[in-house]
């Protein structure tokens, strides 16, 4: 799904995206399940404008789809958080590659992606911190 498109410069955007999609899918799952339970306990004709069997099939499909998508995006979210936390990429983890650099502390790894702790961590529209290789040069006069 990601196809190696998540990198150092866009990981800050991808993590809230997966979190919000997982939460919205979970919300859809809960609303669909609630609607299904309410319709089972009452007259089916009052729950939907379509026939009761069609309503059941559509609700079950929506519940199944919401469940699968919330699990999928939650796994993507926790995989990215784990990669940041352990300061290694997925390829390094699979290859058991030995690092030739010093591992950052876990808090520094998180700050490298999100910046200093603030509520902007949850805002997908804030810019990620610039890495050392992308910092603009300042020339002293």
TrEMBL record:
Lipid bilayer topology: Multi-pass membrane protein
Domain Palmitoyltransferase DHHC, residue spans: 1-95
EC assignment: 2.3.1.225
Flavoprotein in keyword set: no
Keywords per UniProt: Acyltransferase, Membrane, Transferase, Transmembrane, Transmembrane helix
Membrane-spanning ranges: 17-37, 57-78
Enzyme's top EC category: transferase
GO BP term, example: protein targeting to membrane
First-listed, main subcellular location of the protein, grouped into a coarse class: membrane
One Pfam family this sequence matches: DHHC
A cellular component term, taken from the record's GO annotations: membrane
The reaction(s) this protein catalyses: L-cysteinyl-[protein] + hexadecanoyl-CoA = S-hexadecanoyl-L-cysteinyl-[protein] + CoA
Classification via InterPro entries: Palmitoyltrfase_DHHC, PFA4/ZDH16/20/ERF2-like
Localisation per UniProt entry: Membrane
Family membership noted in the UniProt record: Belongs to the DHHC palmitoyltransferase family.
Notes concerning its domains: The DHHC domain is required for palmitoyltransferase activity.
Protein name: Palmitoyltransferase
Organism whose genome encodes this protein: Hirondellea gigas
Species lineage: Eukaryota, Metazoa, Ecdysozoa, Arthropoda, Crustacea
